[in-house]
Amino acid sequence: MAEKNTFYITTPIYYPSGKLHIGNTYTTVLADAAARYHRLLNEDVYYLTGTDEHGLKIEQKAEKLNMTPKEYVDGMAADIQKLWAALDITNDGFIRTTDEQHEKAVQKIFQQLLDQGDIYKGEYEGWYSVDDEEYFTESQLAEVYRDENGKVIGGKAPSGHEVELVKEESYFFAMSKYADWLLEYYHTHPEFIQPETRMNEMINNFIKPGLEDLAVTRTAFSWGVPVPSDPKHVIYVWIDALSNYITALGWSSEEDALYQKFWPANVHLVGKEIVRFHTIYWPIMLHALGLPLPKTVIGHGWLTMRDGKMSKSKGNVVYPDVLADRYGIDSVRYYLLRAMPFGNDGVFTPEDFVSKLNYDLANDLGNLLNRTVAMINKYEGGVIPELQTGATEFDADLIKTAEDVIEAYNGYMETLHVSDALAEVWKLIARANKYIDETTPWVLAKDEAQAATLSSVMAHLAAALRVAAILLQPALSQAPKQIFEQLGLAETNLLIADLKFTDLPTGGKVVAKGEPIFPRVDVEAEVEYIRDSMIGGGKETAAVKKAKEAEAKVDEAQPVAEDIEFDEFEKVSMKVAEILEVSEIEGSKKLLMFKLNDGTPNGRTILSGIKAFYPEYQTLVGKKVIFVANLKPRTMMKKYVSEGMILSAEKDDKLVLTILPDEAVPGAEIV
């Protein structure tokens, strides 16, 4: 039997000086999606994460809490592992730099580099940031403090953390002698650093100006791995931390089977702020040790807030457990993977989170599943019919969409462009929803001669959902299983390898009544809930109580509208329009301005108070809607003229526009 391909992916090991937020969680969920994907390709996968537990900051934190450093990191490591378990993270290993095997291996690495002349003793004087565990030259500081004579007395690191002047005996790693080798390696291995812009940063900012030797020990604190031959020195964080990727596999130990099988790593996944350490220090260190280099280091962007990076002092930190407890694991996983573009920063907003939950998950995916299950029950006795293609003129395009999506999805997932991969899956979901409108099953059901066609339509919808569920397995840990359960499909043949639309199992019996896998939520209440949790840490403040009250609200009987005569109804002219532009109106929290193609040369402008329901209002561009065409124009906010009304459906503080099929022609009468 041929050996399986292997895939080894790592996250950075997290510094447990505080509770992890959704920025840290993004890295872990992204790596988890990659690991799940490669398992679904039937590969042998090893996924590693862990904690970086040494250093002055940990020593100081423990002291403030009247604990030993080991007691402190034991508790933090347990909390982090509990968080990853709660988010269905499927890591195979969890490395702690306080593990005995790791510490012994770090000492071996240091001694080898010392023996072969790559490490030497000297004295270091420079600016040190405790929070960053990093030294900086004066020119590297983002801000410099000077006394009245112009002498530098302090400053801030690029991260914004304060630095202090440190002067102490230190061992140095002779990085400078490997600069030319590293530059050549970059040029011959362009895939080593992704995205490409990160490589340019390393070359222009650190190598070309002159690569400096790296201080690799400290004597100012004791919480670290001691140098065997000079124990007053502890090994500085980057040799200690970076080596975890091989020590976790058993490198240099008698039990090194994992190292032999999985090294070199396929992907080191790191935030952009630590790309330098992983693409300069780490490859030089491995090269000096005579070991293979990882194949690719991906430096992803930050998940930021509107006002910059997350910070407890700003009161803008979002914690994943707060979101998961209220909205479910998959909502958090989907948001993180969908909202972050490859290599670039993403911006978290409560509005965007709720929008993706309501529109992508509840409306698009959830509604497709609900409608399909209901129709198979109604028209097919609850049994998925055999897939027969070509019964309608729309079958071929649905199948072609699925085939194209599968191909594009695999290309994106191979390179960890997971946001783009998910966008492909939503193309299939959107096409399946459109397929329902095109084939009109409710019309086919009225004609017994169309029974075979109706069965074919139901099978095509089930097949589209099956493909979507299989492709969503790396990103979502629960919804794919729920889709299979509601469709009555056995959880077999769920591999992504060789996935085909037409491989639909027949005879599966759908559930009698499908439950929404992603219930819609009240926009205003939930946005406020998230904002409040950012400030109050998820405590039951006024906004939280308001959200719970909205959630528990019981439907009340709607008042019966007064009857009107037909001739009164005939006075209302309703037509089709295409949305050309949507924009906000300065000074208004509710209004959006719509520029419409209504079939006339000049079009028309309509103002609508639906801003709260469509925070991502740009997604409405290109949609076809119904509007009241003969409503008397009115002036709003003293200077804007609204020429009609766009129709929407509203109940229980939820509102959606009436969206028409793409075939609807602007200007057509609604009759």
Automatic annotation (TrEMBL):
Alphabetized UniProt keyword annotations: Aminoacyl-tRNA synthetase, ATP-binding, Cytoplasm, Ligase, Nucleotide-binding, Protein biosynthesis, RNA-binding, tRNA-binding
Span(s) of short sequence motif 'HIGH' region: 14-24
A GO cellular component annotation in the UniProt record: cytoplasm
Location of the protein in the cell: Cytoplasm
Catalytic activity from the UniProt record: tRNA(Met) + L-methionine + ATP = L-methionyl-tRNA(Met) + AMP + diphosphate
Principal EC category: ligase
Pfam families, A to Z: Anticodon_3, tRNA-synt_1g, tRNA_bind
Motif ('KMSKS' region): 309-313
GO molecular function annotations of the record: ATP binding; methionine-tRNA ligase activity; tRNA binding
A GO biological process held by the record: methionyl-tRNA aminoacylation
EC assignment: 6.1.1.10
Assembly with partners or alone: Homodimer.
Family under the similarity heading: Belongs to the class-I aminoacyl-tRNA synthetase family. MetG type 2B subfamily.
PANTHER family: METHIONINE--TRNA LIGASE, MITOCHONDRIAL, METHIONYL-TRNA SYNTHETASE
NCBIfam families: metG, PRK12267.1
Main function: Is required not only for elongation of protein synthesis but also for the initiation of all mRNA translation through initiator tRNA(fMet) aminoacylation.
Name of the featured protein: Methionine--tRNA ligase
